[in-house]
Amino acid sequence: MFQELSVNETAFLKDTLSADIDLRLDGRNKFEFRDIEVKYGNSTNGLVVLSLGKTQVMAASSKRIVQPQKNKDSDGFYRFNIDFKHLQHFNDNMDVLQEARLELMRLLDKVFITSRAIDTTSLCISKGKYVWAITLEISLINYDGNLIDAVFLAALQCLKTLKLPQVRGKEDSVKILEDKPWKNINVHHMPIPITFYFIDNENNVILDPDLKEEKVTTSRNTIFINVFGDICGIHTQGVLSLSFPTYQECLSIAEKKAKAITLIMREKLKHSEDYMIDNLALDLGELAIDDGEGDAEDATKQKKEFVKTIKKSIKKDFDNEQLDDQLVVDALKRKKVPKLSEDSSKRGTYQVKGKRQFKAKEKNIEDEEDDEEEETVQMKSEFN
Amino acid sequence: MESVNMLAGETLKKLDTTTTKINDPSHILNYNITKESFEVSTTGKVSIVKKKQEEGKGKKDKRKLKEKVHIDVFPDQALSNYYFPKSGDLVLGRITNKFAFSYEVDIGAYSTATLDALEFDGATKKNKPNLEVNSLIYCRILSTDRFSRPTLSCISPIHKKSWTSGESYFGPIKGGFLLECSKKLISYLQSKKCYLLATLGQLFEFEIIVGFNGRVWVNSKKSVQNLVYLINCIKKGDEYIGEDSKVDQLVKSVKSSLTIS
């Protein structure tokens, strides 16, 4: 990814991508996207593997119940985390990667929350006490140009397939209703990114370039547009002298592309059952990098043995449907978390000593006997 | 400090002393770790701190007795598409740095290679070529060890033509486009009876250079569209090796997809 192009390649690409000759190696137009393919995994985590041509991105999520901030009693938490560990082997300088990583993380916060595609108020369980906290974890599998579009589309697919259990909040505890089905998150609209890459001039424009085409470009501009024509955000990088009529054409092109892409995304969501991942390890092995294997037989043997070790570790978590629904409850029961009343007394400003502690312990023994029938959950607060 | 070089999948044995610390930031070691031997699964670097039996009981003796061992792990040759240089290979390289008496060239291997400035046909101190950064070079590997930096040269013992005339066999290259291919494709393109190149040669003229390090250079001077057509055929030819009948279908299908006359 970080290697430079030779002089021959830059001269060839600049000649073919200029306005006089409109040629691309794949045979596409200037304003044509590559094929989008999606594969789905568990709906509890919203696992999604999206491929824009050869760039592949995986998105998953994790959730927990938490105390909200003091100023905002009814607001939940959304966090975005990105992994670039695949690129770590090819580059020793991590400063360049961290800048790109922070740029994308801030973009995700900006676009999804300020444009009101996601509501933090819908994550509230009981005001001032309990609130959902969701973190999206996005990881790169292969990089072949046009990172921003792939990351956002994967995040959108993940948010639409995420499911939360139905929950009832009481004074001191939260009860999970197991009989009722899980519900999706409220995603009001889908902001879709469309990036325009420029080559030294405002007349040379490209959409969705390859790895080599992207290195020839000098500046880029992304527009986040809705199906309804609302602009959700604009993001630029580089220096360029733009005139307004060319930018008007870019906006009109972006509207058309956004409508076409939302149709594709909606079709994939409808037929999500046809694109399930049966064996996670095998699918990741197929979707991964283009390192072609040799004709040696040892390679297949080693691959099968490696896959077996992964299958054993996965079957425990993903095959049993009962465990999937009780993820939150069982994880906490193993830890044997104490009740909230004890924690608040220990962590607070005042410290209780002496007889009061013994009295509190005696109370818990009595209460535990009654609470074994009901399945309640008590949490710690880490976001304070 | 000791330094050891080993390949992926090997096991290090005969550790005379017990190990105390293992710095493994990139998770190279397998789970089968004992005090005497351990396995290595992928490439990377590992460092180990040994602990000898103490003879003296003072604090100064403890500091001296600790020794470090650095281990570099390299990938196995057959399993991956990675290039391992050998002496005598013909290679396409790209210049990354320029020094007073040598160049640094990127081959696509575990390390970059060096090219002396006088390794050209008929070159002297006052009469030597001046190459630019990021330019392509066709050259030959003089010598490599298993894990050392390879050296290159552009002198051909067969073709005796100086670099001033543009007819030297090795040297810098102008124009065209670069491709990166797998090992299968390269061995197919280097064979004597390559049906793909023969059918394409009947349609139009072109030049081609195949390097052992996975890089292929292609050029056709008359038109750019033929070049694009050529590149697509070679990229997709990976699937049709050994089946001549399908090559004809490939050539027609690429023509129709690109809408070229």
UniProtKB/TrEMBL annotation, chain A:
It holds the Pfam family RNase_PH. Its main location: cytoplasm. The keyword Cytoplasm applies. One of its GO terms (cellular component) is cytoplasmic exosome (RNase complex). InterPro entries: ExoRNase_PH_dom1 (IPR001247), ExoRNase_PH_dom2 (IPR015847), ExoRNase_PH_dom2_sf (IPR036345), Exosome_comp_Rrp42_subfam (IPR050590), PNPase/RNase_PH_dom_sf (IPR027408), Ribosomal_Su5_D2-typ_SF (IPR020568). Residues 338-384 are annotated as: Disordered. Belongs to the RNase PH family. PANTHER family: EXOSOME COMPLEX COMPONENT RRP45, EXOSOME COMPLEX EXONUCLEASE RIBOSOMAL RNA PROCESSING PROTEIN. This is Exosome complex component RRP45. It comes from Euplotes crassus.
TrEMBL record, chain B:
Pfam families: KH_6 (PF15985), RRP40_S1 (PF21262). One of its GO terms (cellular component) is cytoplasmic exosome (RNase complex). It comes from the Eukaryota. Signal peptide: none annotated. GO terms for biological process: CUT catabolic process; exonucleolytic trimming to generate mature 3'-end of 5.8S rRNA from tricistronic rRNA transcript (SSU-rRNA, 5.8S rRNA, LSU-rRNA); nuclear polyadenylation-dependent rRNA catabolic process; poly(A)-dependent snoRNA 3'-end processing; TRAMP-dependent tRNA surveillance pathway; U4 snRNA 3'-end processing. Residues 86-155 form the S1 motif domain. The keyword Transmembrane does not apply. InterPro entries: Exosome_RNA_bind1/RRP40/RRP4 (IPR026699), KH_dom_type_1 (IPR004088), KH_dom_type_1_sf (IPR036612), NA-bd_OB-fold (IPR012340), S1_domain (IPR003029). Keywords: Cytoplasm, Exosome, RNA-binding. It is found in: Nucleus. GO terms for molecular function: RNA binding. PANTHER family: EXOSOME COMPLEX COMPONENT RRP40, PNAS-3 RELATED. This is S1 motif domain-containing protein. It comes from Euplotes crassus.
